[in-house]
Amino acid sequence: MTAWVRVCAESELLPGESRVAWDGDTPILVVNLDGALYALEDKCTHEDFELSAGPIDGDQVECTLHGARFDLRTGEALCAPAYSAVPKFPVKREDGAVWTRDDR
């Protein structure tokens, strides 16, 4: 099992905000949706491009490269040109910080 990676202090990730953490070579986008935390690989499954560069609208993130959208809660691809889900990762609050890891 891989070790947890510190993302930021809880106070640095308020509702509607996001941060990117790295677990080795894996970039992980962590988003606070109304107090619930979600973590996805920060890479569009259609094209290798950072999802964190795109807008977050409600519970979706859009890839700015070609407009693919993904559900932040599940990683599910919601429209073309992406058809594969983005890997979802565990995220937790502990000791006043936000943590995640690539558990594949």
From TrEMBL:
It holds the Pfam family Rieske. InterPro entries: Rieske_2Fe-2S (IPR017941), Rieske_2Fe-2S_sf (IPR036922). GO terms for molecular function: 2 iron, 2 sulfur cluster binding; metal ion binding. The keyword Protein biosynthesis does not apply. Gene3D superfamilies: Rieske [2Fe-2S] iron-sulphur domain. Keywords: 2Fe-2S, Iron, Iron-sulfur, Metal-binding. Signal peptide: none annotated. Residues 5-100 form the Rieske domain. PANTHER family: 3-PHENYLPROPIONATE_CINNAMIC ACID DIOXYGENASE FERREDOXIN SUBUNIT (PTHR21496:SF23), FERREDOXIN-RELATED (PTHR21496). This is Rieske domain-containing protein. The lineage of its organism: Bacteria, Pseudomonadati, Pseudomonadota, Gammaproteobacteria, Lysobacterales.
